[in-house]
Amino acid sequence: MNFKTAFAALLATLFAPFPALAQGIDETINTIFADYTGWYVSFIFAPLPGTTFSWIALWLVVGALVFTVYFGFIQLKGFVHSIQLVKGDYSDPNDAGEVSHFQALATALSGTVGLGNIAGVAVAVGIGGPGATFWMIVAGLFGMATKFTECTLGVKYRNEYPDGRVSGGPMYYITKGFKERGLPGGKILAVLFCIFTILGALGGGNMFQANQAHAQLSGVIGDYPGWITGIILAAVTFAVIVGGIKSIARVTEKVVPFMGIFYVGVSLIILIMNYDMITWAFGQIFMGAFTGLGVVGGFTGALIQGFRRAAFSNEAGIGSAAIAHSAVRTKEPVTEGYVALLEPFIDTVVICTMTALVIVITGVLNVDPETGLYIWNAEAGRIATEGEVSGVALTSAAYAKAFSWFPVLLAVAVVLFAFSTMISWSYYGLKAWTYLFGEGSGTEVIFKVIFCLFIIIGSAANLGPVIDFSDAMLFSMAIVNIIALYLLMPIVKREVNSYISRLKSGEIKRFKH
Amino acid sequence: MSSETFIVAYEGEEGDTPTLDYAIERARKDGAGLLVVHILEWSPYSFLTPDEIEERHGRRKQEMTRAREIVLDPAVAKVKAAGLVGSAELRYGNVVDKIVEIASETNASMIFVGRAGSQSMAARVFGSVPIGLAQVAPVPTVIVP
Hints:
The complex is a heterodimer. Chain A is built from 21 helices and four strands. By secondary structure, chain A is mainly alpha-helical. Chain A has a single domain (51-505), classed as Amino acid/polyamine transporter I (Up-down Bundle), CATH 1.20.1740.10. By secondary structure, chain B is α/β, with parallel strands linked by helices.
C-alpha cells in the first residue's frame, strides 16, 4: 500500500462516521458564502456600459499608466539605480544592523510571490488563453510605477514610535498627506481603506490561500473534506500569530525564498528541455493577446484576465506593499520606491511568465487539431484542459508532464507559500485593524482569532466564490489607494526631483563596501 | 600617547577573559594602546518576518546599549585600570570582515583573538573567527588559547 492510499484510508477511517456531516458543512459554507458576497462581487466587476471590460481593471491600468507617464517611465530609467540600492551601494555602513533595502524587498516579496504566481496564472491562462500572459506582463511593467509611488509615500508618512517600532501604509499617508496638502476627507478614506484591507486580508490574503493549499493537498493525497486542511492550517497560524511562536514564521520566511528560487529553477529547466517550443509559445502569447485564439471574449477576455491576475499577484496599487516596505531604514523615502518597483518585475514579469510558458508549452490546454484554436468548455467557463482541472491543479498537471514527482513538491511549496502569504496578510490586516481600533493586545487578539476562523472557511468553500470575493476585496483597496495616490503624487514628484538632483550633484554618495 | 594600537576581538564571553588579560600584558610590555572590538553578527541579506522588520530599529538600539554596557564598558575599564590607553569599537556585520576593516582604519599593528568557540561542528564546517582572521588579517594575529 503506498503512502497516498494509506493516508486516504486513514482519513476514511477517522471520518467514516461523519461523511455526510463533513460534506454538509462544506456545502453550507459554500451556499452562505456565495449568497452573502455575490452582490458585492458583481458590483466590483461590473463591465463598463456597452462593453465587457470591467471598470475596475480599467481603473488599475489607467492608474499605472498615469504614474508611468507622470514619473517619466521611472521603471525603465530607475531600474539600474534600483538594483544598486538593493545591493547596498548607497547604504551608509553606520546603519548596518537596521532593515536593509534587500530585506524589505525580500519580505514584501514573500508576501506577494506565492499562489498568485502558481494558481492565479493558471486561472488567467485557463480562462483568457495564453494571450492573458501578454497583458499580465504589460500590467506588471506599468504596475512598477504604481508600486514606486505608493512605497515612497509609505516611508515618507510612516509613524515612528518611541520604542523604535515603525508603522506605515496607505492609512498613514492618506491622513498625513491629505492634511499636508490641505485636502478634505483624509480620515474617511483612511478608514475606508482599513476596512477593505481587513476584508482583503481575510479574502485574498487568507481564504484564497487556504483554498488553493487544500486543492493541491487533496490532489496529491486524495480527496478529503476542506475543513480538515482548514483546521490544521488555522491551528498553525494561530500558534504563530496568537501564540507568538515566532520560530514557525521564521522558518517559513527562510524556506519560502528558496522555494521561489527552486520553482523558477524547475521552470527554467522545463523551458530549456523544450527550447524549440519557446518561440512558438511566445507566438501563442502574442497572437492570443490580440485575437483570443478561440477563447470566448477574445481579445478583451485575455486582457481582463491578464490584468486581473497581475494585480492579484503583484498587488501594485492595492496598498499592501506600502505597509510592508515602510519599516526600512533610510533617510530618503524615494529609495524605497525605487526598490519596490522591482517587486512587480520579479513577481509578474519573471515568475508569472515562467508559469504561463510552462502551461502553454506542456500542452495541458486542449487545442482543436483542425482549427488550431483552443477548445472552450462552456459549462466550466474556461478552456478545456487535460483532466478538466483549473487553478493550481492545472499548473501542477503542466509541471507533472515534465517531472512526475513535481506535484508532491508543489504541494509542499503551495502550502508554504500559502502560509507565508497568510502570515504577511495577517500583519497587513492587523495594521489596518489597530489603525481603526487602537493598539492593544485585547483588540489585536480579536482580529487574529477572526483571521484563523476564515482560514477554515476558505479551505471549505468552492474556488469560485472564494476567488471572486478575494478579488473584490483587493480591488476595493485599490479604489481608495489609487485616489489617494493621484492626490498625493505631486509630493512624490517633489521628492523624486530633489533626490535625483542631489544624486547628480554628488550630495548623495555611493559608499565603498 | 602610545605609538601602537593593538586590537582585541572581544565577545564578552567567559572564555575571552584570558585573551583580554594576555592582550593587556602584551600591550603594557610594548607600550601600546588597546582597542576592544565587539562585532554583532549581521547580514543585510538575511530574511526577516514582517514583525521582525517592524521591531528591528528598536532591537538594534537595545542590542547596542547592551553590548556597550555589558561587554565593552567593563573591558575598557579593565584596560584603563591596568594603566593603558583603552577604547572601544562596536559594529554590525561579518565578524572577520569588520575586524579586518577596523584594523586597516586604525593602522593597528596586532590583533588578539580567543580560540574559544572554534570547536563546534558549525565552526569546523564554515570556519571560525580565529581561523578566518588567521587567513585574512592584514597584521600579525595572536590566537589566544
